[in-house]
Amino acid sequence: MADQPDVALIEQIVQRRLDEILPQKIEEKLAQIRASKTPSMTIIATKGTLDWAYPPFILASTAAALGWNVSIFFTFYGLQLLRKDLSDLRISPLGNPGMPMKMPFGPEWFKDMAWNIPNLVQAGVPGFEAFATALMRQTMKNKGVVGIAELRALCLEAGVNLIGCQMTVDLFGFSREDFIPEVKEYCGAATFLPMAQAADVALFV
Amino acid sequence: MNFDKDLDARGLNCPLPILRAKKALNEMQSGQVLRILATDPGSVKDFEAFCKQTGNELLSHAEAGKEFTFFMKRK
Predict the structure, then answer these.
(1) Domains and CATH numbers, chain B
(2) Tell me, what's the ipTM?
(3) Domain containing A103: what range?
């Protein structure tokens, strides 16, 4: 009768032992998984102006340079960034009080001046947007900021996946011919969201 | 310090120094040293983070005036 194992006691011992060692083992396993996993990022790009073209491409190219897997989902006005010809990207300071306006030419004291141009002038003067865009381009050139076309090419070179939103392509009457052939695929939100879920970083620009 | 490849990233701003460095490193063999010249003040932190993330070793970095010099060993 003494040979009958005391099941309850064994259970108690096992339970106690598991409580002791499991948390640490789980922690170690998680750390191992985290260390070996390649970081990944998804970005949803919804804007098509010259200023907003930069964040998705800079973040994507930098992450790719760090060895991450990156996908950008271009939707709505973000589709402008997939066009073959990017030379027409524009910027408007109208209603954009956060945009600093300094002249990119002239003596230093002149370049330092912040110009506060009233919305009425910006909306009323024809060609103002083209003027502002030209000034912005000059500013970027002065500071050695890379152009969007080159930045996009760098992204592609680094293996960033560019994905187009089929729905907004149809919505705005675009055809795939308007966009660069390197776009990896065209899909909808239902296809993209699982990608975002699996990624470590998911951004909305 | 001896180096096997030279990268002039002066006048280029974020993210170009990093991207150019990555490209240059890809063309090098393990153990070779890349010298990078940059003027972007943000590049110091950027290169440190880049090395930490990618496993390449930042051997040294120095500043002379507005110019930064980095020596990076390809992993």
Answers:
(1) 5-73 (3.30.110.40)
(2) 0.76
(3) 40-204
